[in-house]
Predict the structure.
Amino acid sequence: MNRKTRINSREAGFSLIELIIAMAVTLAVMAAASMVLMSGFRIRTHQNSASDALADVQRALNIMSREIANAGYRLNTNGIVPADSDATHIRIRSNLNAYDSTANSNAQNNISEAGEDIKYLVNDASTTDYLVRYDVYAATQKTVLANRLDSLRIHYFKDRVTYTTNNCPVGDVSVCCDIQNPSSAEVTPGNAKYIVLAVCVRIPASGTRNSSGYVPAYNVLLVSDVTLRNSTLSTY
């Protein structure tokens, strides 16, 4: 009798208290794992959105740089329209059809075809800012090249320059997120032979401050150096 009682005692399962403790530990581990997983998904989504925004602006900056470099083709100026160009927008001209016998007019300084008179500017909207390409003679004049940027700064120089950059991770981007300390002073747009384009992209915060997976807002500065290849450069 005693032997049978001892065997039954050895074969008994977990007690109720042990089951409750095990379930509590399991739930706590699952909750922690869920938090980590949700945090990872949030960070991944934020990084994907940031990458898309930067790729969008980089493509626009490449287009802008290429067309500005062609400014002044078959013109007797550097191709920049001084009256309509400053630190936040630029208007360029080039006679792309100068040697095209099939064009309506291929005379020097004749600007009348699509792609020959273009203005770049940032259009402020309520929720975002748009980088707009305005083609004076095109059938579709306005094209949005990028729709997630914070600022566009255009710097005009006589010669190639060196400079430092400031991403301004926190603070007012109106006074930072731009190039700094250029090696020479800027000139008026009509006298420029070298241009530096600085585009600031503001990546918004993700999540709630002091919570798991929170990513604070930060700025990314994209810079492009452009040589006006059709201007008369004595040294480069």
In short: The mean pLDDT is 81. The chain has two helices and nine strands. The helical segments are 2-10, 16-69.
